[in-house]
């Protein structure tokens, strides 16, 4: 997975929407993402990876919304079934629903911020994730753009939480 900056922010918004369980906005975000060229594989990968933060039940709900889109058929339908099986296995056996290659992906590290910013009491996790993202080369500007995208596509409340966490993080570095 090697998305451009626009796709990254779409993924972050989707992660936050899954975490806050906003079905109408999530469906709209999926439709926009697919129309803009994001693949079904990328969306399914995002759902399995953020399930660690948002919870497997919310990722399964998000997968149902993805499945409900009108034009899902053929290989995409098989991909959704495979993702559903991974998530249900993770729920049943308490294992991570993704492989080593996905665990070390810089995109997923960035996208995890969307899920973490959407959680009420995750400031210590957010702090660690921000450190990891900066170490991976994400710039302050990219992180600040993330806040703008969260405000535009998710909620001002979550964007404000993200902004406060970013300010706190960078104040410690200055």
List the helices and strands and how they pair.
Blueprint: H1 5-20, H2 23-35, H3 40-54, H4 56-67, H5 75-93, H6 100-103, H7 106-118, H8 123-135, H9 140-153, H10 156-173
Helix pairs in contact: 1-2, 1-3, 1-7, 1-9, 3-4, 3-5, 3-7, 4-5, 7-8, 9-10
Structure in words:
The protein has ten helices and no strands. The longest helix is centred in the middle third of the chain and has 19 residues. Helix 1 packs parallel to helix 7 and helix 9 packs antiparallel against helix 10. The chain is mainly alpha-helical and 174 residues long.
Key attributes of the depicted protein:
174 residues; mainly alpha; 79% helix
Helix content: over 70%
Major beta sheet, specifics? Answer: none
- Please report the distance between the alpha carbons of the first and last residues: 33 Å
Q: If helices are DSSP runs of H or I spanning 4 or more residues, what is the number of helices? A: 10
Average predicted local confidence, pLDDT: 86
SSE class? mainly alpha
Task: Tell how many strands the DSSP assignment holds.
Answer: 0
| Shape annotation | globular
Strand content: under 5%
Report the radius of gyration as a whole number of Å: 15 Å
Quaternary structure type:
single chain
Low-confidence stretches: none
């Amino acid at each position: 997975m090697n998305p451009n900056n626009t796709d990254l922010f779409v993924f972050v918004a989707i992660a936050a929407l899954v975490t806050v369980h906003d079905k109408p906005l999530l469906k709209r975000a999926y439709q926009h993402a697919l129309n803009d060229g994001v693949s079904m594989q990328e969306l399914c990968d995002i759902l399995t990876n953020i399930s660690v933060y948002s919870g497997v039940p919310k990722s399964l709900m998000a997968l149902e919304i993805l499945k409900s889109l009108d034009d899902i058929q053929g290989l995409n339908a098989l991909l959704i079934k495979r993702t559903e099986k991974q998530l249900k296995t993770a729920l049943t056996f308490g294992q991570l629903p993704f492989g080593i290659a996905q665990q070390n992906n810089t995109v997923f590290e960035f996208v995890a911020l969307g899920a973490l910013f959407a959680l009420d009491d995750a400031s210590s996790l957010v702090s660690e994730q921000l450190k990891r993202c900066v170490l991976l080369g994400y710039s302050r500007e990219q992180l600040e753009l993330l806040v703008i995208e969260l405000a535009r596509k998710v909620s001002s409340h979550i964007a404000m939480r993200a902004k406060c966490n970013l300010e706190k993080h960078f104040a410690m570095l200055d």
